[in-house]
Amino acid sequence: MIENExxxxxxxxxxxxxxxPRDHHCLSRKQIDPDVVKVLYRLHRRxxxxxxxxGSVRDLLLGHQPKDFDIGTDxxxxxxxxxxxxxxxxxxxxxxxxLRFPGxxxxxxxxxxxxxxxxxxxxxxxxxxxxxQNVFGSPRQDAxxxxxxxxxxxxxxxNFSIVDHVGGMxxxxxxxxxxxxxxxxxxxxDPVRMLRAxxxxxxxxxxxxxxxxxxxxxxxxxxxxxxPARIREELQGLFQHKISGKVLRQARESGLLPHLLPGYQAxxxxxxxxxxxxxxxxxxxxxxxAFGVAAMFLSTFMAFCSANLNLRITEIxxxxxxxxDPYCRYFSVAKGIKHDARELLVSCYxxxxxxxxxxxxxxxxxxxxxxxxxxxxxxxxxxxEVAEQIAHWRQAICSPETKPTAEKIKARHPRRxxxxxxxxxxxxxxxxxxx
Length: 435
Fold this sequence. Notes:
48% of the residues lie in helices and 9% in strands. By secondary structure, the chain is of the alpha+beta class. The protein has 3 domains: 1-177, 2-Layer Sandwich (Beta Polymerase, domain 2), CATH 3.30.460.10; 182-262, Hydrophobic Seed Protein (Orthogonal Bundle), CATH 1.10.110; 289-400, no CATH class. The strands form 2 sheets. The chain has an 8-stranded mixed beta sheet. Strands 9-10 form a two-stranded parallel ribbon.
């Protein structure tokens, strides 16, 4: 295990990196975005270190296509801006350079960081957090700051080698998720790392290092203090990568879920539904947050509706609001998303109580009704007793009678004849003498 004392001082951690030459790894420049290669070469030719870093190296070595490419260098943000006309600097907490290319393509170029020494910290404790994020260092110091070993691999453009400071290649070959340093210490630094460890294990189909499980067991309660905005961002990432069901199931088994989502009743029906939703949407279609929120709470909502199928719609609306409101308020979910999630839940109630009731035609013509039926159909896998109702509703939605034609729309909304108005600014006509 990599000892965490190495992470606490400004000096370089002892030891030398493992260098994997080009003929011993599968990563090629041809797999890297051409604009990223140009940036790497310009930095290198101007005398700076230029590495491809982070998850892009990991994904390329695994044969996956990265969603973006990050560059690490020993050039400061100001020096990077002088090298590239298309550069702008962002971040107060974490200062970095961003290069803009045609097609609104953005490439982040980050200066290597390190952990500062205790004698370097500012006297004002309120400035410590921002200061720690912006102390520049060496590539080895930067590698030891990262969260997991598989995310700390560097690709050196000067000789096409892989630079491994923390044993990431060994873990990549063993398909193992391992924390850099002592897991409890790193989890106290950033509790969200516990959720990210579960995410990487599921997304990459890797095994968790036993030390991570022990660390989560000791530090699970700390994630309750994490920023709601960061937790929501991570949850959205789970939905986008189609792994929400498996990750939340692991979070429940590890004891992390009660602190991650306080009050959320993650029963087997809910987790099964999320997992089927992930499998259903494996195609690269955009993630719909309202659909995800409704799926998370559908089991709780339907447990109430099953015993109250004779309630009025207004009462059902209030119940749907009561169920999803704590989640939406905690994560500052937009009102439009909350409204759509509530309407999906209420539509499932309409499906469950059966056809032939008031407002059915208007409900069938609603463009969101097929979307809600898709959610209800996923829930039916654990509740086969509603299969017959789903078949009826699917047939009713596809019926030509429920699809408004142009003639029907025109008949329901006849065009009003516009009254001819007098042009503004023209004085009224004066009456003639004989009038």
